[in-house]
Amino acid sequence: MKLREPIAILGFGTEGEYALEFLKSRHVSDITVCDHNKKIALPEGIKSRLGDTAFDDLSHFQIIVRSPGVRLTERGIQDAIELGRTVTSMTQLTLEEANDRMTVITGTNGKTTTTALTEAILRAHYGSKLIVGGNDRAPVLNEVMARPKHPVLMEASSFQYADVTHSPYIAAILNITPNHLDWHADVEEYTLAKSNILRHQKTVIGRF
Predict the structure, then answer these.
(1) 81: closest CA among 90, 73, 91?
(2) Are 99 and 106 spatial neighbours (Cβ–Cβ below 8 Å)?
């Protein structure tokens, strides 16, 4: 993706911080951090919009990087999409860069354990070449770009994959039961977010 400025980062938790690092590493200078929390600590020189109205009007930005905790249904995000602005995420950018070498695991229950077991299996073959990230781990986009031939394993949450437009080369959904209904509108939306991991694959094999 061409990084057209100005760019907004929505949410400044762990993923927002890594998004800022990534954008600065790509020599992007016009960055604004938007967060509902008025008390977050920002690096010196970074523009910000903080407080209840932080996401209200995003039309000024060409690219909007959404952190997983920021709901897609935010009115400002929907208005920006209607205006043709690009809404992306660290997960989406990682998929664009490396979807053909990625294995991603999701599910309501068991994904952390399954990802750990899969990591042990893959490390026996790939050793230190394996890149591991996702969910509660740190984003791996910079590492993925620095190591363009190395395999990638990620654990995925519904928050991360709700709006992606690429699927990984290998994806697994372990199970889906009602969860995170304080974030998703209903079970149907939660299920769609989880199954989005498969939506753009050419081949799907599984037991239903």
Answers:
(1) 73
(2) no
Query: For the range 130-136, what are the long-range contacts, defined as Cβ-Cβ under 8 Å and sequence gap of 24 or more?
Result: 133/94, 134/91, 134/104, 134/160, 135/111, 135/160
Which SS3 state, helix, strand or coil, does residue 127 take?
helix
pTM given for the model: 0.84
Same domain, 97 and 188: yes
Same domain, 68 and 23: yes
Judged on CB neighbours under 10 Å (0-12, 13-18, 19+), 45 is exposed
SS3 (DSSP) at 100: helix
Residue 173: closest CA among 151, 201, 145, 140: 201
Half-sphere exposure of residue 37: CA atoms within 13 angstroms, side-chain side:
11
pLDDT per residue as tens digits for the range 40-79:
999 988 999 999 999 999 999 999 999 988 988 889 999 9
- Amino acid of residue 207: R
The backbone torsions φ and ψ at residue 165, rounded to the nearest 5 degrees and listed phi first, read -115, 10
Report pLDDT digits (tens) over 139-156. Answer: 889 899 999 999 999 998
Domain boundary among 29, 57, 88: 88
CA distance 127 to 117: 14
CATH of the domain at 161: 3.40.1190.10
Where on the phi/psi map is residue 127: left (φ > 0), alpha (ψ -120 to 50), or beta?
Answer: left
Residue pair 145/180 in contact (Cβ under 8 Å)? The answer is: no
